[in-house]
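Much of what follows relies on a compact textual record of a protein's fold. A complete example follows; check for yourself that the lines match position by position.
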Amino acid sequence: MKPIKTNMIFLCLGMLLFFSSCVEDDDYNAPQFMETPPEIEGNIISLASLAGVLAQNDSLFTFEATNNFAEAYVVSNDEGGNFFRELIVQDKPEAPTYGIAVQVDLSPLFTKYNFGRKVYIKLDGLTLGQREGSEPRLGMVDGSTIGKIPESFVEEHIIRDTITAQVVATQKQLSELVFTDANTYVELTDVQFSGIYFLNNTSTTYASETQDEFNGERSLESCVSSAELIFSTSTFSDFKGLSLPPGSGSLKGIVTRDFLGEFFTFYINSPADVVMLGERCDPLVFSCGIAATPAAMEFITIDFEDQNTNNPLSIPGWTNYIESGSEAWEAFLDNGTNQSLGISARAGSFNSGDVTNVSWLITPVIPIEANSKVTLEFKTSNSFSDESVLQVLYSVDWDGTEEGVSAANWASILDAEIVQDDQFFADWVSSGLVDMSCFEGDGYIAFRYIGSGAEASDGTYELDDILISVE
């Protein structure tokens, strides 16, 4: 029996050596699968060429027998839940000129169409369209609208390449946004959330407040201009319960338009794309409240009746200054549906062609220090003001020259009511009886108009019956 035992020992040792040679503890390598680029059997075109197709067609356009594939890069990411069954793509990973929202009946998308992924979109069978003023969309026709590409057709129409590009966000100020920025990846700089979300040492969430239904909509404001924008977060997002950052800084995301195409909105992929660690840039304000009665003596009263209509205002002691653009404050007379109050003043940039238009109308110095009571009254109206802005400001350090206007510190007169865009255009709105008695020092009141020749911000504001009283 001894030889048998010896043979068994050698057999066991041999099997041990065999297995130890097949498996190394730390050097085992998983099989590597090489992804190959797709073979596109058709014409590869720029995504930006779809802009021309839209311009040539007033209604929905369905691609047929073109054999065209649009090259694009994914800039949305639905991993955090802020996008759902929608893929945002743009024509280039850097400095894009065009973007589009592709409607797909598939979720999640990030596992296959990740951020930066290059794709080819097979256009035949898809329909292109957009609502008036809103961003373009691509999908399958559903009656008179753009429907979602069915899940079974997604891979046929959205072909994934092997390339994941480094997407570089286009840096923009809020005031620099234009319609072609829609559906592109943008970094908004020098911005903060409105101070109303941080009152009484509290902080509002992204989208978990009681009034938030489908989206939490928050006001995002510029630190360098009067521009504002609606920041939207889905109530289905993973980060809806996080608090908004209280500081100023920048954030990266997708520029969109609201449902009716009236204004810009903004969606982020992740809260990691929000960097707001700077100090807040809240504007200076003057506020003494509303006075019960006007001051006893009229100091300045202006009704513009002595001005030449359709000409720039020319009032002794006042400054009518164009900071940028071509449009000054002018006198006008209108007896139609948009009636003036006799001769009134107006500022606007309709058909101006100006990239920006900033016009100032500034009073003579107001003697705050020599009086115990000072009050201000005026009336405003608007003609489709849209995204243009009228501000009422006060400065104690303006040197009285046009050159010094931009260098001076101007603070908002908080209690003065100004007509809103949704106010009926024929109405005139009273400012209220604004108390200026607590303002710190003699200074100047300015009516500043901000607009542009762009359709979204080429509105008009009207002004009349300015009365400043002292006692």
Notes: Helices lie at 2-22, 50-55, 151-157. The chain has three helices and 30 strands. The chain has three domains: 43-164, 170-278, 285-470. The two ends are 128 Å apart (CA to CA).
